Amino acid sequence: MTYSQAILGGDRLALARLLTQVENDVPESRTALIELFPHTGKAHLIGVTGAPGTGKSSLVNQLALYYRKTKEKRVAIIAVDPSSPFTGGAVLGDRVRMRDLSGDTGVFIRSMATRGSLGGLAQSTANMAQVFDAAGFDIVIIETVGAGQSEVDVARLAHTTLVVEAPGLGDDIQAIKAGILEIADILVINKSDRPGVENTEKALKSMLELAHPTERVFQHHGQSMRTAAPRQDSSSAPMWIPPIQRTVATEGKGIAELAESIALHVAYLTQSGGWGLRERARLEVELEALIREKLLNRFREDVPQKRYDEILEKVIQRNISPWEAVRMLIDK
Amino acid sequence: MTYSQAILGGDRLALARLLTQVENDVPESRTALIELFPHTGKAHLIGVTGAPGTGKSSLVNQLALYYRKTKEKRVAIIAVDPSSPFTGGAVLGDRVRMRDLSGDTGVFIRSMATRGSLGGLAQSTANMAQVFDAAGFDIVIIETVGAGQSEVDVARLAHTTLVVEAPGLGDDIQAIKAGILEIADILVINKSDRPGVENTEKALKSMLELAHPTERVFQHHGQSMRTAAPRQDSSSAPMWIPPIQRTVATEGKGIAELAESIALHVAYLTQSGGWGLRERARLEVELEALIREKLLNRFREDVPQKRYDEILEKVIQRNISPWEAVRMLIDK
Q: Quick one: which of A58, A246, A309, B88 is 20 to 30 A from A189 by CA?
């Protein structure tokens, strides 16, 4: 029986081994990935991102528990920590989570610290998500730290992206990043029993207004943003307004409501055709990353190391510019 | 007179125009970059990174003022905001800075929000730094937000990297990222008049101990870490211990001491050969990025769009895997 057959048959050990191979980008993992690929496309990929200290891990934990117990879904968690390129920062989070989720075969948790390039990280995450998808996990939660381009890249893998904030984290509105807000499908204010929650929500609302100017009308009518009723935009397609959801993950508060928002987003994506668009965008990004990798590998095979080193040395001596070096190496 | 001649002659307008072209990656900018390249290699590149709310911009501002007034250095500032992939988050910071620094021809400030890929951002930043270097700026400060892979990439451009923290930003030590700490040449605790500064310094010190275990001895002897006296490691080369520097940028406190630490780091790099190693590493990364770009461009010229789209469609339909698609597109 091949690796992929074992995984399709529910073998957790084979799954764990393949995930390690995928994370380390071992060449042999490719065969299994290719064989598993036709079995992908069923899972709901949920991205969860936010600054350190927002309680993302607890939230993901609670959400996974909720899906397990209430909906009987099989849930995989990929915890990515791009902020720790040298040390494995995601390990502790795993241990904490284990207490609540270990022993349940319907849950699989995997953490990954950044190694090598960022492109590599997004690629490994995408591949891991595919493995879980093929292995029959209904929901794959991709958790990532911080608020940089890396999170945007990882979030682009997901169908639904949750951005987690918490009251009193920063000095002011600066802590809520404009960029990260714009990738949010759902905004979560975790630790919402803390002082300052009103300010956090107000700040998020005004940033949402900047991002979705017509929403002001929506708010002026006094409706809750939480329901995020579909609206008509100029192209007459329904439009999604990111709802703001308060939670206290450590006490399980707001989790059911959050899961409901997520379900609404899935319904919205399905109706609007957004699901297919996100799938397409994701696979396009993945294909391009693989093409880049292949091209570079072929270049490395074609150009002798000695010649590369000689030309690099000329650049370092400022005899030729990097652009001229590329011409000498490729356009020969 | 060509662009590059104008810039070498001190024409600020030509400089501003070229920087815009470089940021937008306009093909014409290449000629100027190639012509300017032999004139690079003199500037000291200083990277400044840290979470939002640490007061990085004020710190960079004060440092630039200090170098202008005390050392008569020409200073360029490149403010990169990788956290705002969609909106230009760095604009406001510029305006604030302008009050103190505008009108001084020895200072040039440029901000850049993320566009396109992260690789592109590091590349644009590197090119901008080269332009400033060739134009005769003695110091180029590259300021960037957050604590992700993007900052690591940007920091790798610099000879000296400052990581800025501030008391009371996060709930706990979580806010100080292990990864970012390891790229720090100098640690700055800005806003050090705030409560909690002792805790921040303690947290930084213990994280430094983890990163440099032998340092404990150094600390136990009660010496100030600020002077960061060179030590012998097993390879008998002197080793740099990141000093911790307290500042209150808004009041100009600690800036002279910080500048002194930076000068010590330059001396260390020069003595140890680290300067040359960092230059080499930077140019190697740059060359590889250009090679990747060139290879992808050539691929796009070689493969008709129609064929690419057909194969992508097969991937989306799960008829073939992305890896098989690459083989069909490249190995034909």
A: B88
* Cβ count near B303 (within 10 Å): 16
B53 to chain A, any CB pair closer than 8 A? The answer is yes
Our measurement of the distance from residue B29's CA atom to the centroid of its chain's CA atoms, rounded to an integer in Å, reads 21
Q: Are residues A180 and B83, on separate chains, in Cβ contact within 8 Å?
A: yes
Task: For residue A28, give the nearest of A37, A17, A38 by alpha carbon.
Answer: A17
Q: Name which residue leads in pLDDT, B290 or B260.
A: B260
Q: For residue A167, how far is the Cα from the chain centroid?
A: 23
- Which of B321, B328, B330, B331 to probe by mutation at the A interface, max A CB count within 10 Å? B321
Distance CA B111, CA B148 (A): 19
Angstrom distances, CA of residue B151 to CA of A228, B48, B131, B158: 35, 9, 21, 11
pTM over 0.90, yes/no: no
End-to-end CA distance of chain B: 48
CA trace torsion A43, A44, A50, A54 (10° rounding):
-90
Separation of alpha carbons B166 and B208, rounded Å: 16
Whether CATH 3.40.50.300 fits B40-272: yes
Closest chain A residue to B144 measured between Cα atoms? A148
**Separation of alpha carbons A249 and A255, rounded Å:** 7
Query: H or E stretch including A210?
Result: helix A197-211
Tell me the shortest Cα–Cα distance from B322 to chain A, in angstroms: 6
- ipTM rounded to 2 decimals: 0.79
Whether the Cβ atoms of residue B140 and residue B250 lie closer than 8 Å to each other: no
pLDDT in tens, chain A (332 residues): 788 999 999 999 999 999 999 988 888 898 999 999 999 999 999 999 887 778 888 999 999 999 998 999 999 999 886 554 433 334 444 444 555 666 677 889 888 765 544 456 778 889 999 999 999 999 999 998 755 566 667 777 899 999 998 887 654 444 455 566 778 899 999 999 999 899 889 888 887 777 665 543 333 333 333 333 444 444 455 689 999 999 999 999 999 999 999 999 999 999 999 999 999 988 998 899 889 889 999 999 999 999 999 999 999 999 999 999 999 999 75
Closest CA–CA distance from residue A269 to any residue of chain B (Å): 17
CB B137 within 8 A of CB B75: yes
Amino acid letter for position A3:
Y
Instruction: Please report where in the chains the tokens 């609540």 appear, as a residue.
Output: A100
Joined together, the tokens standing for residue A10 give 């529910």
Q: What is the spatial distance between Cα A195 and Cα A193, in angstroms, rounded to a whole number?
A: 7
Asked if A89's CB is within 8 angstroms of B312's CB, the reply is no
**Residues A81, A112 contacting (CB under 8 angstroms):** yes
Q: Chain centroid to CA B31: how far? A: 24
Instruction: Mention every residue, 6+ apart, whose C-beta is less than 8 A from residue A157.
Output: A45, A47, A122, A125, A126, A129, A142, A282
Ranges assigned E (strand) in chain A: 44-50, 75-81, 107-113, 139-145, 160-165, 186-189, 231-232, 238-239, 244-246
Interface test with A, best of B83, B191, B285 (most A CBs within 10 A): B83
B18-28 pLDDT tens trace: 999 998 888 88
The domain limits of chain B are 40-272, 274-332
B146 chain-A contacts, CB cut-off 8 A:
146-148
